[in-house]
Amino acid sequence: MLQLYNSTRLWLEKGKENFKSTLIENKAKLLERCRKILATSYHEQMELHFELMPAPYFRFREPRNISIHIKSVQTFLKREEDAEEGAFECDMSWIDRDDRSNTELLVTAWNRPLFLEKICCALAAHEINIISADVYTRADGVVCDLFQVCTVDREPVTSERDRKRVLETFRAINSDPDPFAEYQPKQYLKAKTNLLRTDSNEGGIPFPTRVHISNEISSTCTAISIQALDRIGLLHDLFLTVDRLGLATVHARICTEKGAAMDTLYVTWPDGSKVLDEDKHHEIERTLSELIT
Q1: Is the dihedral of CA 29, 31, 35, 36 positive or negative?
Q2: Residue 39 pLDDT more than 80?
Q3: Over 4-72, what HEC string results?
Q4: Angle between helices 160-173 and 115-125 (to 10 degrees)
Q5: How far apart are CA 259 and CA 72, in angstroms?
Q6: Helices (H), 83-154
Q7: C-beta contacts of 83-86 below 8 A and 24+ residues apart
């Protein structure tokens, strides 16, 4: 909310062109602050990271967080360089925040088909709930996906055993050298209605679910806004269903509050164009509505 307020004020005070130039200046300042935090061995990767990451990534990132991401990318690329040919590699960093009741998870790897779905599957398989997510793909194909996660009791994920199991499951899901091999999530996900603990403070009013499609929110993507009752595996099912509808998820903003999931998926056709066909809109709304209800 603070980032939105500051951006809106800047736009109104300085106008469109000055707003853009200020964003560029702020990005340059971020780069300099990261340069002071990181050892010189990371500086080459740092320059690449600032060049290759999409612009929205830099708008509300702290230098210490960006520095962690750069270290993760360098760690991943080193592992990938040392790995056997065709073997899947990634870096999975769990970041503890003392001031939060959740844990931040950073997953870094080369982009591949159903990447998001497979991360969500590995988390859901071990009953870890996704509170929010920001997914980014660099221009060179390196994925930096950020998740705020918690246990079914809405506590931080502190168990080293659980963290290790998530990584092992994610590796197992991606173990086939062929990234286009058939994906079978049922091997890892057990069918349960809702693995989240009930909030005793909730009233008895039925939660309204909805799916809304807009081509006005984004200049490049079709936005699918979803409001649903949260459950373990919901995000996995949403991403997988969108893929099976023949669409590509370019970006996603995920937010969960008191058991309510309010997610926006930014999708395109595989060729990168918006979804303009009204019949396809109806199919998306119908299919996703059935999923969330």
Answers
A1: positive
A2: yes
A3: HHHHHHHHHHHHHHHHHHHHHHHHHHHHHHHHHHCCHHHHHHHHHHHHHCCHHHHCCCCHHHHHHHHHH
A4: 140
A5: 31
A6: 115-125
A7: 86/177
C-alpha distances in Å from residue 206, one per residue of 67, 209, 263? 43, 9, 19
Over the stretch 154-211, which tens digit does the pLDDT of each residue have? Answer: 899 999 999 999 999 999 999 998 888 888 898 898 765 555 544 444 555 677 899 9
CA count, 13 A, side-chain hemisphere, 220: 7
Locate 106 and state its tokens: 């950073």
Identify the structural domains of the chain with CATH numbers, from first to last: 208-293 (3.30.70.260)
CB-side neighbour CA atoms (13 Å) of 149:
30
pLDDT score recorded for residue 203: 57
Can you point out the beta strands (E) in the chain?
91-96, 103-110, 129-137, 142-150, 210-214, 222-229, 248-257, 260-268
Query: What is the three-class DSSP state of 79?
Result: helix
Tell me phi and psi for residue 58, to 5 degrees. Answer: -90, -5
Measured distance CA(226)–CA(18) in Å, rounded: 34
| Tokens standing for residue 99 | 């001031």
Tens-place pLDDT, residues 122-150: 999 999 999 888 888 899 999 999 999 99
The model's pTM: 0.84
Dmax of the chain from CA atoms? 57
203, amino acid identity: G
